[in-house]
Amino acid sequence: MTSARDEILARVAEAVGREEIDSETEARLTERLHHPPVQLRPQWDDDPVERFVSKLRAVAATVDVVNTAADVAKSIASFLREKDLPSTVTLAPDDRLNAYPWPDVMENSRRNARAEDITAITAAEAGVIETGSLVLRSSLKSPTSMNFLPENHIVILRREQLVNNLEDGWRCALETANNVPRTVNFITGPSKTADVEQTIEYGAHGPRRLHVILLIEG
Amino acid sequence: MKPMSHDFKARSEKALEDPVLQSALKNLGLGFVEARRQCANALPEFEALRDLGRDICDHTLANLDFYLRRYEEKVTEAGGQVHWASTPDDACRIVTDICRNVDAKKVIRGKSMIGEEVGINDALEEAGFETVETDLGEYILQLAKEPPSHIVAPAIHKSKDEISDLFQKHHAVRGLTERQTERSALVQEARQVLREAFVSADVGITGANFLLADTGSNIIVTNEGNGDLTCTLPKVHIVTAAIDKVIPSVDDAMVLLRLLGRSATGQEITAYTTFTTGPKRAEDVDGPEEYHVILVDNGRSTMLGNEFRDMLRCIRCGACMNHCPVYGAIGGHAYGWVYPGPMGSVLTPMMAGLDEAKDLPNACTLNGRCQEVCPVRIPLPKLLRVHRTWQHEFKHNSGMFRFGLGVWAFFAARPAVYQFGTRIAMAVMGALGRRKGVFTRMPLAGGWTQGRDLPTPQGETFQAAWRQKRKGQEQ
Amino acid sequence: MKNQKHGPRVGLFVTCLADLYRPSVAFATVKLLEDAGATVEVPKAQTCCGQPALNNGDLDHARILAKQVIRAFADFDYVVGPSGSCMGTIKTHFVELFDGDPEGLTVAKDLAERSHELISFLTDVMGISNIDINYDGIVTYHDSCSGLRELSIHDQPRKLLASIPELTLNEMTDSNVCCGFGGTFCVKYPEISSRMADDKCTRIEESGADTLLGGDLGCLLNIAGRLRRRGQTTRVFHVAEVLAGMTDGPGIGEGEG
User: Fold this and answer.
1) How far is B382 from chain C (nearest CA, A)?
2) Which residues contact C101 (CB under 8 A, 6 or more apart)?
3) What is the H or E stretch that residue A120 is in?
4) Prediction ipTM score
């Protein structure tokens, strides 16, 4: 008895006009998979930082460009104050976040986010200049739930992490070429919906606020 | 979902008189159409990307046997399981079996058109699982027990008042008895209610915008983040996807993603573009323990081999229906099934039957605006004409109509007789209508005159007048 | 082209609507072509391009009529007609009918190359950029779908209209959105068709124009019919009639009484 798999593949084979794939075609297609043609990627003249920041702001994220590690903490403190948010935050268990001095008054909890968390702070793998996107991956130190469960998501990004196009962002999320994480998120702004009368509202299911701190040192 | 396309005429007439729907449809032009136009104009590479997108899809479809196998290998390597379903029933059976195997009680869903196509919600509910749609638009429709009317903005036909009523009625059981009227309050209430579903669900089912053969990943694109929560929190993640969703590599996918957002809602990129590959890794603290992909055929392998292969390029952006003046007049429910507008008029006859959907390929003026905006250049008007050719061959159109067409064609192929007869007919019509300039009623032309006057002919035919003029000149 | 001693020989494709309904459009076409320097003949053995058959899936009859057109126009330098949809059918769809018939395909392709819609023929082939005529009015222009999307006709009529001194062109919103005619569509789905025509009439009203022009009689009859039913007094002419200075008689849907 043929399985659904065999039936479907047989119909597909008939439709594309060959019973078997010959070895030459197999090799050619395999090569294309391993070395895909570099497709057209958008280019631009803008200053990279300006473009990245303005793209993010255009989708209602807030962005602070700072120059020292100390300013990172200050930016967080003023964000929480301005939005009237509690000083209790959840920090990702990410060693990259150890580089910043966290004020004593801020209660730190280095763990994955829970549904009731108000604010989470994470690092990111990259920032994509093309679209103003943050690239985050799932890992022990950067659980995906942190990007979606809390009401507010703060991301700390370094200038060196900015890359041009989406394809570059993807490559930053891979530790090696063969290691694909379970989840890779390209995040461009806070959660939103226009399902009620075609008008945008924020915080549909994911965070209602996305705050990005871009650290440009030296 | 049971097709109701045979009811097209009645539904479309009803839709024309529905003030809530008509108001929503007017916003389509101001909303998605204008947004797409601005976004496309802002990207100099847009037209070149459309050609690339078409070529990537064509290449994939021509080698789908290779790419489906590779995709399956990669998913298995990543620790996931691939299931194959020829028919909607197969797909539903596989989903309910998986849910039963893990003793699931509650299932949450991200938006998935293939899920609608095969009727997953009905199957799950019949099998006794509590099912919750998490996309806000789909959630609203689940409460209203209505099908989607647009593939990207499924609840576009619902007014804020209707949503307020639905929430008040259905959320009371959770202690939320106050009727919300502000948009932000409605969204906040939905967030609260659905958050509970996210954290307590056993199984999360999402669709896929694309499946990648090089990594075995599936890509979902949302603005709400519901799809992401659906594929991260529950213990089991099921992806339902059609076989034509496979794309070779990430680089190919990025081309199509650049086209998708711009064409659908005029966005460069959505808030969340997410790639998931297999179940959680050993070192992950969240993510599903099981990852299943159900690849659904449901007629696509047939389309791959006939005149409709080009239709399989579709990336489900909805641009065609946003720009279709017929859709813009009647909305999505008139089409009677999952897929409305131009792409729905091509697909529904293929999947639900040409006889069931016989109006759909005909309720089109062939104006071509759909093809003009299709990001992967699908020749939609041509495909609709292929359906009409099949309908003519299988005698699905009305006998009266075929007869009329036949009579007309008979005379048109015989110029001398045609010119003799039309000369008389036009002279009569011209004489009758000369004074007023229009007929408000005309036998056999009730279809025309019910909505507009029929201008009168000048009374002479050009051929007759020309011959006379020439004769006069020669004399 | 224009100043050659012997101008090109043009076969006039009358179109069935101009032939039966409004010959003045065909006479205007002849005048414009002759003024541009062409010699015009009207083959007798023509009735219709076959679009109703083609668009309704009746390929056998469509093929018969296509062959009739091919035969009738075999000998002309150019074939020109006052309709984007008819000439679009001849230029882009006839070849589809001869799959597996290499001879038929050859003659269909040859005809396609020699065929043109009137306005684009005047501007793009005959190099006409202005018309020596006057029309005092505020006009708006409806872009018929086939002409626009199959034959890229958009700028050409506007170029010629711009050369007319007293004529003002007010673009309407959605000038390129279908009016709801669609051939047999308008009688098969009359309610939807009327709604689309209605929207078009509203756009015309909003434009402030007193005259509607277009390049396709099917569209113009449809819109004029809806204008009259709504009691709108906008005059409706085929653009060829204005360009040829033949607007003294009743417009489309206007009575003499």
Assistant:
1) 10
2) none
3) strand A119-122
4) 0.96
